[in-house]
Amino acid sequence: MRGRFAPSPTGELHLGNARTALLAWLQARSAGGRFVLRVEDLDRGRVRPGYREAQLADLCWLGLDWDEGPDVGGPCAPYLQSQRTAGYTQALRRLAAAGRLYACTCSRKDVAAAASAPHADDDEGPRYPGRCAQRAVGPADVERTTLPDGTPAALRLRVPEREVRFHDAVQGACVFRPADETGDFVVRRKDGAAAYQLAVVVDDDAMRITHVLRGADLLASTARQLLLYDALGLQAPAWAHVPLLLGPDGVRLAKRHGAVTLRELRERGAAPEVLVGWLAASCGLAEPGEAVSPRELVGRFRLERLPREPTRVASVPG
Ligand code: GLU
């Protein structure tokens, strides 16, 4: 069993990220598996210097550890996506050879949205109508970021007209129809970087991840990722999409609810066990008010007991 946490160094980790990290860590540790930390730093427009180190320090402070990662190395190094470009190019070549890619010059907004992991309800924006679908790209051209006339172009995957079904350990049976929901989606951006959907599939495969546990905001992405697993002939991992944390007003936990980043909470003097207890209590793994370390939770962790609904918290800790 190999699990992972894959933060994007675009900001401070907040309570929602911390809860997902804790649960992914518990899933791996309770199964006696290995836990991998991978930094998803492909979105040059949003990555900021210093956040990677700060995020890793926050996770250590909480009491989490990892067997492989950018700071400790490991057999699947490098663990920074920005250093894994060769694997993405190779995957793009295979997709192109199978006739699945075309060059797309459509609006920058679509492309930007596809590049980073979605943080809103869904990411890809409106369904792409296939305006550029006639511009097939061959394997030799997947690194070209412009058309022959110099117009910047992204690469999109031709999405088959079929349902994608999968089982999610928390959400149950899931059915999506990417052809209707997003249409052909971006797998390589105009700036040459692999899009999130492609990079996450290539890396979860290359790092031999058997179990992906992440936030439920990525549930719809999973269907697109399964199309990529299929197109690349790769074996998909088992999925678990854990509910999001909502503030007292029922809206996704954010700054306006108070101190929600781990850094702010640390600076206010919160003890890690108090925070871990709060996070665990928010999904039924601890009693309200209990202070507990991640280690102490390993024996209590049961994926099937996690709530499926988003968790509305009455107040933030501290
Ligand atoms: N890097 C993504 C994020 O921070 C997570 C990707 C994943 O877990 O698949 O939202």
Index terms:
14% strand, alpha/beta, three-stranded antiparallel β-sheet, 31% helix, binds glutamic acid, globular, 318 residues
Helix vs. strand class: alpha/beta
Mean pLDDT across residues: 93
Q: In order across it, which strands form the biggest sheet?
A: 3-4-7
Distance between the termini: 35 Å
The hetero molecules present are: glutamic acid
How many beta-strand segments? 11
Shape: globular
State Rg.
20 Å
Order of helices and strands, N to C? EHEHHEHEEEHEHEHEEHHHE
Largest sheet: 3 strands, antiparallel
Tally of helical runs: 10
Instruction: List low-pLDDT spans.
Output: 115-121
Strand content: 5-15%
Share of residues in helices: 25-40%
In short:
The chain is α/β, with parallel strands linked by helices and 318 residues long. The protein contains 10 helices and 11 strands. Helix 6 packs across helix 7.
